Amino acid sequence: MTEGKALTIGDCVHRAARDFDVQGLASPRLDAEVLLAHILKVDRLYLYRNPEEPLTQEVASAFQSLTARRLRGEPVAYLLNRKEFWSLIFEVNEQVLIPRPDTECLVEEVLKVCSDAATGDLRILDLGTGSGAVGVALAWELRHAHVVATDISPGALNVARRNAGRHGVEQRMTFLAGDLFAPLSEKFDIIVSNPPYIRTTAFQALPPGVRGYEPAAALLAGPEGTVFHERIIAGCPEYLNEGGWLFLEIGPEQRQGVEALLAAAAIFEESHFRRDYAGLDRVAAAKRKQSSWTR
Ligand SMILES: C[S@@+](CC[C@H](N)C(=O)[O-])C[C@H]1O[C@@H](n2cnc3c(N)ncnc32)[C@H](O)[C@@H]1O
């Protein structure tokens, strides 16, 4: 920072974008604008309209501190403590995975089978809720549903609870800490999960911002990345109602393995896979055979 003449909005954005670019960040200008707009509590358009506006020393040093963190690789969502998912703003911090746009496909798939069941009690289980993104989005969309959200991380559950409160669905959600199904003693109509699914050997190849900042417990899932899919499918006889649906987010390379696990479970009458908007297999859906459960 120069002594004397105050830096302007334009100076700050330009310098930070240049430094981010040199560092190889994917969207240098956007990151710089988003961070400065956050500190100034304005939208990005304001920055374009007021490039000559001088910044106070306080704002300039707050911006410098955020840009330094960004240069070390910290994701923008953690710097802002927020991320948009399903057009809702979620609080995020380093206790939770940053919700990904791909995961919206999981929500979309659940809504396809639930849209018919607009009345009555619908019991949904979101395993490994993290920030609550999936569970809160479903509770938000399905006003007749009760969503039980579990996570092994009490810190994540605190974030998820606050996100449910922020979106006014906390009275139709229950948050339970524990290992997958361990805290549960009831059956559900829908079980949905975006479980950890990174192969242990793939960890080092993850982008530094993911590897260095997002919780490892939200990512890693054994040599094939399917440890959690296997355990969740194995839990379905006990926790999924007959005629109910299981939805699992998968990595594209896991389709075959998950397909085999679903077939071996021998409790599902149909299953299908859904691609994300990049054309990659992203969601496995399976309907449990029905003998007594009806919509
Ligand atoms: C990939 S993240 C998904 C978070 C969130 N559902 C989302 O889509 O953004 C997986 C989550 O599973 C949780 N988790 C990991 N192991 C678990 C276990 N054994 N039992 C319950 N949750 C677990 C992690 O803490 C993390 O929040």
Description:
The longest helix is centred in the first third of the chain and has 15 residues, at 9-23. The strands form two sheets. This protein has a seven-stranded mixed beta sheet with strand order 5-4-3-6-7-9-8, sandwiched between helices. A two-stranded antiparallel ribbon has the order 1-2. The protein has helices at 9-23, 28-40, 44-49, 57-71, 76-80, 104-114, 133-141, 154-166, 208-213, 227-239, 255-265, and strands spanning 82-85, 88-91, 122-127, 145-151, 173-177, 188-193, 240-249, 268-275, 281-288. 40% of the residues lie in helices and 20% in strands. Helix 8 (154-166) links the parallel strand 4 (145-151) and strand 5 (173-177). It folds into two domains: 9-72, Helicase, Ruva Protein, domain 3 (Orthogonal Bundle), CATH 1.10.8; 82-288, Vaccinia Virus protein VP39 (Rossmann fold, 3-Layer(aba) Sandwich), CATH 3.40.50. The protein has eleven helices and nine strands. The structure holds S-adenosylmethionine. S-adenosylmethionine binds at residues 96-97, 99, 103, 128-131, 133-134, 150-153, 156, 179-180, 194-196, 217-218.
